[in-house]
Design a protein that fits this description.
By secondary structure, this protein is α+β, with helices and mostly antiparallel strands. The protein has nine helices and five strands; from the N terminus they run H-E-H-H-E-E-H-H-H-H-E-E-H-H.
Length: 180
C-alpha cells in the first residue's frame, strides 16, 4: 500500500472509531507491519501539528486517537452544547494521584495513605472513567486492584503514566514550601 493511501486509511479508521486504536490493530487492518504503522503515525501527528487544523492525533500508550485540538474546545463546546464537567475535588485528586503513581493498588492501600474512607471517591473516579478495575490481589478476600484508564491519560494530556512528574521527597517539599 502506498504511503498516501495508508495515511488516509489510518485517518479514516481513527475518525470512524472515536476510541483509541492500537498500532497492532491498525497494522492488521492495513496489512502492513507495526513498525511502518508507528512511522506513519509519527508523520500524521507531525502533519496535523503543522497544519492549522482543528484536529490532532494523540498517542495513548501504544494506541492512537483522533481528537480536537484543545485551543478549539470552547467552539466545540458551544456548537454541541457540551456541559462543563465539574472539576475534581481535592480529595479526588489525592486519590487519583495515589492510584496513578502506585498502580495497581487496592482501595485499602489508598485509605491507609489518606487515613480516611474513600469508597465514594473511588466510585466517582470509576464513573468518570479515570480509573478502572485491573484485577484482584491474591490475598484473603481477593481485594480489587485499581489503575488509571486511557481516558485518564487523555484528560491529563500525557501518553503514558511514565510522563507523570516526579514526586518530590518530603525534604524537597518543605524546601519548596519555605520558598513561597
Amino acid at each position: 500500500m502506498e504511503v498516501k493511501k495508508a495515511k488516509a486509511a489510518i485517518q479514516a479508521i481513527l475518525f470512524a472509531s472515536g476510541d483509541p486504536i492500537s498500532a497492532e490493530r491498525l497494522s492488521v487492518a492495513l496489512d502492513i507491519d507495526k513498525t511502518t504503522v508507528v512511522k506513519l503515525m509519527g508523520n500524521l501527528i507531525d502533519d496535523f501539528d503543522k497544519d492549522e487544523s482543528g484536529i490532532c492525533i494523540i498517542k495513548l500508550n501504544d494506541a492512537y486517537q483522533m481528537c480536537t485540538k484543545p485551543r478549539y474546545s470552547n467552539y466545540v463546546r458551544r456548537a454541541v452544547d457540551l456541559r462543563r464537567h465539574t472539576p475534581l475535588s481535592q480529595a479526588a485528586m489525592e486519590v487519583l494521584a495515589i492510584i496513578a503513581y502506585n498502580q495497581p493498588v487496592t482501595k485499602s492501600f489508598v485509605e491507609q495513605i489518606r487515613g480516611v474512607d474513600c469508597a465514594s471517591i473511588v466510585y466517582n473516579l470509576i464513573a468518570r472513567d479515570l480509573i478502572e478495575e485491573k484485577g484482584r490481589l491474591e490475598l484473603p478476600g481477593r481485594p480489587l486492584l485499581y489503575g488509571t484508564t486511557l481516558n485518564f491519560l487523555k484528560c491529563f494530556g500525557i501518553a503514558s503514566v511514565d510522563e507523570l512528574p516526579e514526586v518530590k521527597s518530603e525534604p524537597e517539599l518543605k524546601e519548596v514550601l519555605e520558598e513561597k
